[in-house]
Design brief:
Oligomer: heterodimer
Structural class of chain A: alpha/beta
Strand order of the largest sheet of chain A: 5-4-8-9-3-10
CATH superfamily of the largest domain in chain B: P-loop containing nucleotide triphosphate hydrolases
CATH architecture of the largest domain in chain A: 3-Layer(aba) Sandwich
Largest sheet of chain A: 6 strands, parallel
Helix content of chain B: 40-55%
Number of strands of chain B: 9
Low-confidence stretches of chain A: none
Order of helices and strands of chain A: EEHHEHEHEHEHHHHEHHEHEHHEH
Order of helices and strands of chain B: EHEHEHHHHHHHHEHEHEEEE
Number of helices of chain B: 12
Shape of chain B: elongated
Low-confidence stretches of chain B: 228-241
CATH architecture of the largest domain in chain B: 3-Layer(aba) Sandwich
CATH class of the largest domain in chain A: Alpha Beta
Shape of chain A: globular
Largest interface: A-B, 46 and 47 residues
Mean pLDDT of chain B: 88
Number of domains of chain B: 2
Number of strands of chain A: 10
Strand content of chain A: 5-15%
CATH superfamily of the largest domain in chain A: P-loop containing nucleotide triphosphate hydrolases
Distance between the termini of chain A: 56 Å
Mean pLDDT of chain A: 90
């Protein structure tokens, strides 16, 4: 077998395996669009995967393809929305190819952030052994602060800890000012805006002082770390030479920024998603991330998966028609 | 938005249907009967799903499903009768049916400011021993003046509760009127207890609508209690269970899933899209995407339904138009049906 050794600009080397030596017949297993997505390598790619078009299959095959091509599995980063999703995809890739795929770095944004921060949190003024607050813990901390600030003894009704936490988290994730959220969802508390703000500010201080991070902090701090620390950014970007993000239409602004920062050295990012299925804006996901991906990553190639493996044509004709109503505007 | 045109090799299949029903309950009964029909044709229950924009929109259907003995799981919201505020409402009605219902007394007395477990026990004791005669098994007690004697030495709210119950207990009132009177009393309590009371009030409007269909409180309570008691969260989550179950789900919770037959209910302008989205272009576009997600869950059958003549208390309007996302679509793509 003839070998051709590639030198990539990140310094990692890739031994190109000739397609005839592949154990998987990618051409036969995939349709044209899927094949194109699976076998695309360097540079930014936007894969628009319509409903039921075999998005998961495409990701699984691309993991296998990269590994088969000689990319070291731990150089591949697959970010998903649930742990179950990444586990399932890597399991399928392993079954398809071999156990090398188990070593692909996969997980949720939060678990990835946690892993990185365990190593580098000290650069942000935390100890690396920080404690993670789950939602219930976070609410308890807020309760504690409210009591300390003597805001619980007032005669006037005061929002519950769950509400104060919800406002804090959503303000951050949706990048919406607290007063707007308050007016929209809890209008009866509008006059308590200042008190709520005070609690939020004290909550931030308390966490830092006590070496605590809530779920939102994991993402915020990872973005902050990558922005601030040139050396960390460089080493992580060099480490993960191929980045894939699933359900990109559901990412929020902080997550999109993390992706940009991680890919800054090589721009080898493939995001997969469907703008037409972006339905979680109330939770902070931003359809703008997927819509502006080509501008954020110049030279981006778009691939659209349109062959649906789920529904009959009459159902798809109606679905297409419903979307058309939107594009007229 | 990126352009895409989905296609599939499954060329043939039945046309999606747009079904209009004269009211909410007819919509529910249509869905129930269609489900039973499909099941007869060999489609298992777990291959069918009913999807909706908001969790409260399935409440009426849940009651009809229970009546028809169709087991279901619900995702993306609590089942109607599992929500705390609906349980509260049911408890008020229950003591009017059975003044010996200690569990319900306990629930509604503890909602009163200043009533803790000990006071509560004293009041219940007083009700059982001083107000209801031992020879009176139940409801008759409510017509005696003895039952409604004034309270002394208890928090003020106790007397207020009894005033409301006395009023609501009048035989001439149909269930909806009783519920209405209780609701007026209960709303401030709801507002004081829950920060998200705005959403919960919607549920109670639904409750009010449901009571309008009943002539007596006891059959209303029976229907509400029909829910099999085994439906706890633990049961729902245990994966080993083989039992066939229909899926009820908000569209948000149905993402990524698929079923042989899908019903999208309440495709009604003002409900889906929601009223709130009407004044905001971005939100309206997201509502459209929700409709797209809902429709693309179906493999073989898709039925989109909407009731007409739905009174919206918030705006004071009567909702009767189909969702804008499906209105005006050619009959070659979406076949119009009417329930009669």
């Amino acid at each position: 077998m003839k070998k051709f050794t590639l030198t990539s600009h990140t310094g990692s080397t890739l031994t190109l395996v000739h397609p005839t030596r592949f154990t998987i017949d990618y051409r036969k297993e995939l349709n044209d669009a899927q094949y194109k997505a699976v076998t695309s390598l360097d540079g930014p790619y936007l894969v628009i995967a319509g409903a039921g078009t075999g998005k998961t299959r495409a990701i699984v095959f691309r993991v296998a393809y990269l590994v088969e091509l000689g990319v070291k599995p731990d150089r591949i980063l697959l970010l998903t929305f649930t742990r179950k999703a990444s586990r399932e995809m890597l399991r399928r890739a392993s079954m398809l190819l071999d156990s090398r795929c188990d070593n692909v770095s996969g997980g949720t944004f939060h678990s990835f952030a946690n892993g990185v921060l365990r190593k580098y949190a000290s650069l942000l003024g935390y100890d690396n052994n920080f404690t993670i607050l789950d939602q219930g813990d976070a609410q308890d901390v807020i309760n504690l602060i409210r009591t300390r600030m003597k805001l619980d003894t007032r005669q006037k009704r005061f929002p519950r800890k769950e509400t104060i936490y919800d406002l804090h988290s959503r303000a951050l994730n949706t990048m919406t000012p607290v007063d707007e959220l308050l007016a929209a969802d809890y209008p009866h508390y509008v006059e308590l805006l200042e008190d709520i703000r005070k609690i939020h500010a004290a909550y931030m201080v308390y966490k830092k002082q006590n070496n605590l991070m809530d779920y939102d902090d994991l993402l915020v701090n990872l973005a902050e770390l990558l922005r601030q620390q040139e050396s960390v950014r460089a080493s992580l970007s060099a480490r993960y030479t191929y980045i894939m993000v699933d359900e990109y239409q559901d990412t929020n602004k902080i997550q999109a920024e993390i992706v940009r920062l991680l890919a800054y050295k090589h721009q080898n990012v493939m995001v997969v998603g469907d703008d037409a299925q972006s339905i979680y804006s109330f939770r902070g996901s931003s359809i703008k991330n997927i819509l502006s991906f080509p501008e954020e990553f110049p030279g981006c190639v778009s691939i659209t998966l349109e062959e649906n493996f789920r529904s009959s044509m009459p159902i798809l004709r109606l679905a297409n028609e419903i979307l058309r109503g939107s594009m007229i505007r | 938005m990126y352009f895409k045109e989905l296609y599939s090799k499954k060329e043939s299949g039945s046309l999606p249907q747009l079904v209009v029903a004269a009211d909410e309950n007819m919509q529910s009964r249509y869905v129930v009967q269609r489900i039973l029909q499909l099941r007869e044709e060999g489609v298992p229950l777990e291959e069918m799903a009913v999807l909706f924009r908001s969790s409260y929109l399935s409440f009426d259907l849940e009651i009809e499903l229970a009546k028809a003995n169709i087991p279901f799981v619900k995702f993306g919201g609590f089942k109607f009768i599992e929500t705390a505020h609906v349980k509260d409402m049911i408890a008020y009605l229950r003591v009017l049916e059975n003044p010996r219902d200690v569990v319900s007394w306990n629930r509604i007395l503890l909602l009163i400011d200043g009533v803790g477990p000990r006071t509560c026990e004293k009041i219940i004791d007083d009700i059982l021993h001083n107000r209801i005669g031992s020879h009176q098994p139940g409801r008759e007690a409510l017509v005696s003046t003895k039952f409604w004697t004034g309270f002394h030495g208890f928090p003020q709210g106790v007397q207020k509760l009894f005033d409301v119950l006395k009023d609501a207990s009048l035989q001439v009132y149909p269930p909806s009127e009783k519920a209405f009177r209780i609701l007026q009393y209960y709303e401030p309590i709801l507002r004081a207890r829950y920060d998200d009371h705005v959403k919960r009030v919607k549920d109670l409007e639904m409750f009010q609508n449901i009571t309008e269909r009943y002539n007596d409180v006891s059959s209303l309570l029976t229907d509400l209690a029909l829910e099999p008691p085994t439906e706890s969260v633990v049961d729902i989550e245990s994966p080993g269970k083989e039992e066939e179950r229909l899926v009820l789900s908000t569209i948000h919770s149905a993402k990524g899933l698929e079923w042989h037959s899908v019903f999208v209910i309440y495709a009604l302008e003002g409900r889906f899209p929601t009223m709130r989205a009407v004044s905001n272009d971005d939100e309206m576009e997201e509502e459209r995407r929700l409709m797209y997600v809902a429709c693309t869950r179906a493999k073989e059958n898709l039925s989109i339904t909407y009731p007409i003549n739905i009174f919206d208390r918030e705006s004071g309007m009567v909702l009767s138009k189909p969702s804008r996302f499906i209105q005006g679509i050619s009959e070659n793509l979406l076949e119009p049906w009417v329930v009669e």
